Amino acid sequence: MRLVYALVFVLGLAAIVFDHLASPSTGRAMSPEDFSGACAPCGAPCPSTQSR
Amino acid sequence: MTVATTAEKPAVAWPGDWLFLAAACGAALLLAALVWLDGQPASAALIGLGFALGIAFFRAEFSFTAAWRRFLVRGEAGGLMGAFLLIAVAALAIVPVAALVPGFGGAIAPLGPSLLIGSFVFGIGMQLANGCGSGTLYTAGSGSGRMLIALAFFVVGSVIGSLHLPAFLALGGADPIVASQYLGPWGGLAATLASLAIAAAIVGAMARRRGANVLPSRTIVIGAVAIGLLSIAVFVAGRHPWSVTFGFTMWGAKIASALGFDLSSQPFWQWPGPKRALTDSVLTDTSSLTDFGMIFGAMAAAAALRPFARADWPPLKSLAAAALGGLLMGWGARLGFGCNIGAFVGGVASGSLHGWVWFASALAGCTVGIRLRPWFGLSRE
C-alpha cells in the first residue's frame, strides 16, 4: 500500500504542477457559482432561467 | 553509588514517518508557492486552510458517515449534534456576510427532483464507501488505501453525474429559497439558528426515546468548533462557503480530456463556471485548493503519528464497496449539488432551504446504504 501511495503522490503532484504551468492561471481563484446566472455551487442555472 | 537514570531508560523512538511527513508539507508549500507567484495570496490561504482542515478532521476523527449511521442504527445523537454545532458556528459569519458584503455569496441550490435523487443516492454511497466528501479526502490522505479507491471512483462518478445533471434539471424545480432574502441578514441568521435548534431538539428527542446518548463528546465539540471556524476562514478567503466535490468533477474532466474524451461540448461544461474551470489551471478553482490542502494536511497529521500506509489492503469485497460507494457519491454529489460540506454544511449555514432537503434525503439514502453494507462484509454499525 505504501508503494501505491508513493506512486499516486508523485503522479498526482506532477499532474497538478503540469496542469498549472500549462493552463491560464491569472486572476483570483473562483468557484463556478461566481459566474452570473449560476444557481448552485457547480454553476447550474436556476430553474426560472432554464424555463425561459 | 550513583545511577545514571537517563542511561537506563530505553530510548523512545519517534513513531512517525519522516518521508511522508516531509512530502506532505513540501507538496502543500509547493502549491502555495505556485499560486503566490501568480499574485494570489488568497489561493495560498485556501491551501493552508485546507491543510488545517485535514489535520482537524484527522485529530478529531470527525465523521459525518459514522455519526449518521450511529444515529440510524443505535439512536446515538452525539455526532449529529456535532455537525449542527459546526454549522451554527459557520452560519454566524456566512449568513450575514453573504447578504451584506458585495462579492460574497452563500451556498444556494435549486429545489427539485435532481436535488432529491442526487442526495438520496449520495446517502447510499457514503455508507458503502464509509466516508462522505470530506471524509473520503481526509481518510484517503491519511493512508487508507480503501478510501483512495473510493476517491478515484468518486471522481469518475462525478464526471458521469456532470453529463446527466442537465437532463435532471430539465425535469423542473424551484429557484433557491434563502432565509436572508425573506428576513434580511439578521432575521435570516436567527431563522437558520432556530432551524438548527429545532433539528437538534428532534434528534435529541429521538435519541432519548431509544435510550441512547444525546450529547457529543468533548473531542467532537472541539472538532466541530475548530472546523466551523476554519469554514469561516475558507469563506472569507474564497468568498463562498467551503465546498469539496466540484474539484473532483473538474479533476475527472481534465483527466478525461487528457485521455482524448472531449467534454467541452457537453451542456454542463458549457455553463460559464465549469467551462472556465475546464480550461484554466486546477489551482484557480477554490474547491480544488482546499481539497489538495486537506489531503496533504491529513497525510502530514497521520505521518507525524505513525508509519504511513503500512496496513494491508482490505478484502476485495470491502474494496468493491468503496468503489461502488465512491461512484454513487460522485454521481449523487453532482445531481444533489454537493456533499455533506458543500450542500449540507454550506447550504444550511447559508440559510438555504436546499441544505435541509439534502440532509433529509441523504439520511434516507443512508438507511438503504446501511442495509447494503453486510453484502460487502461490512458491519451495519
For the largest beta-sheet of chain A, the strand count, sense and barrel status come to:
none
Number of strands of chain A: 0
Q: Which term fits the overall shape of chain A? A: elongated
Low-confidence segments of chain B:
1-6
Tally of contiguous helical segments of chain B:
16
What is the average per-residue confidence, as pLDDT of chain A, rounded to a whole number?
89
Query: Which stretches of chain A of 5+ consecutive residues score pLDDT under 50?
Result: none
- Cα radius of gyration of chain B in angstroms: 21 Å
State the secondary-structure class of chain A: mainly alpha
| Structural category of chain B | mainly alpha
Biggest β-sheet description of chain B? none
Taking Cα atoms only, what radius of gyration of chain A do you get, to the nearest Å? Answer: 18 Å
Strand content of chain A: under 5%
Order of helices and strands of chain A: HH
The number of helical elements of chain A comes to: 2
Q: Indicate the percent of residues in helices of chain A.
A: 40-55%
User: Averaged pLDDT of chain B, please?
Assistant: 94
Q: Strand portion of chain B, in percent?
A: under 5%
The number of distinct β-strands of chain B equals 0
Q: Please give the alpha-carbon distance between the first and last residues of chain B.
A: 59 Å
Notes on the structure:
The complex is a heterodimer of chains A (52) and B (381). With 52 residues, chain A is an all-alpha fold. Chain A is 48% helix and 0% strand. Chain A has 2 helices and no strands. The longest helix of chain A is centred in the first third of the chain and has 21 residues, at 2-22. Chain B is 71% helix and 0% strand. Chain B has 16 helices and no strands. Classes of the chains: A mainly alpha (52), B mainly alpha (381). At the A-B interface, helix 1 and helix 2 of A face helix 2, helix 3, helix 8, helix 11 and helix 12 of B.
